[in-house]
Amino acid sequence: MSIRACKDLSGKDYEEVLNLETICIDHDNLSGSFFLDPSLNFDSRIKSFFLLYEKSKLISMLSMFIPTNHEAEITAYTLPKFRGKGYFKSLLGRAVEELRQFHVTDLLFVCESTSIPGKRVIRDLKADYDHTEYFMRLNKSRYTPLDTYRLMLLEAGQKDLERAITVNMRVFEDSYEESKSLIQNCFQSDIRKQYLAVLKDLIIGVGSANFAGEDVSIYGVGILPEFRFKGYGKELLHLIVDSVWQSGNSEITIEVHSENDNALTLYKKTGFYVQVAYEYYRIKANEVL
């Protein structure tokens, strides 16, 4: 048995991980997928993929999404016939060692709501339920473009960095450093776009899109507090959807916290439906193993 840690996946690694994922999803009757894009991790030096091999065969894998310096979202798969042998714990131990070097204090285990093996592992770790998020997909037949818009959609660039940071901080109540890291990483990525919602001469909202793979994932959509409940969030979402389709992409997804009733209602009215529910379980890094 050997473990290899890396910051990103090469072409061969990527194919092996997707193959492992497909076998596990089919065996456990799941619908979700790995998050394999490390470009939004708060520090580009951090290793976020841990691959465990028996001889030359990939049998277990752990992935971390670390957008802020205080928590890491963890997903993992092990081939069915190799489960119960401690391989996940070995990977988790290496991952925690890596996180401690960067002073990340919390772990969030991401588990599809229907995953019995996943919940068994989380129960053994004694992690506490934190929240549920819905992964939603747009049904194109239920989407109707708006007739008129008060907003203009601006694709932001490096010159807009400080303005984008300021708005992002107020929309999501993030720190300056957290907002700067997310937006700067977006600017530096070839597969992401950062959008600003402009009302006359004012920037009143933000949104982003990830163009990796067959699906385009919309995320980070929000309006400044003083402009909420006026229909601007609806306009911003429609503008981003329209822009994505104009770029030639057809499959669009979005995620939402299950308790964010306003956003969930908006997404459903726009034509999104829940495809997968993910449960998040929290534990302190210093309580693991």
Give a brief description.
The chain has seven helices and twelve strands.
Describe what you observe in this structure.
The chain is of the alpha+beta class and 289 residues long. It folds into 2 domains: 142 residues, Aminopeptidase (3-Layer(aba) Sandwich), CATH 3.40.630; 131 residues, Aminopeptidase (3-Layer(aba) Sandwich), CATH 3.40.630. Strands 1-2-3-4-5-12-6-11-10-9-8-7 form a 12-stranded mixed β-sheet, sandwiched between helices. Helix 2 links the parallel strand 4 and strand 5. The chain is globular and about 60 Å long. The mean pLDDT is 94.
Low-confidence stretches: none
| Broad structural category | alpha+beta
Q: Ends: how far apart?
A: 19 Å
Named at the architecture level, the CATH assignment of the largest domain is: 3-Layer(aba) Sandwich
In round numbers, the mean pLDDT is 94
The CATH topology annotation of the largest domain reads as Aminopeptidase
The main sheet orders its strands as 1-2-3-4-5-12-6-11-10-9-8-7
CATH superfamily of the largest domain: Gcn5-related N-acetyltransferase (GNAT)
* Gross geometry: globular
Q: Please summarize the sheet with the most strands.
A: 12 strands, mixed
Share of β-strand residues: 25-35%
* Name of the level-1 CATH class of the largest domain: Alpha Beta
What's the number of structural domains? 2
The gyration radius over C-alpha positions equals 20 Å
**SSE series:** EHEEEHEHEEHHEEEHEHE
Task: Please tally the β strands and state the result.
Answer: 12
Percent range for helical residues? 25-40%
Number of helices: 7
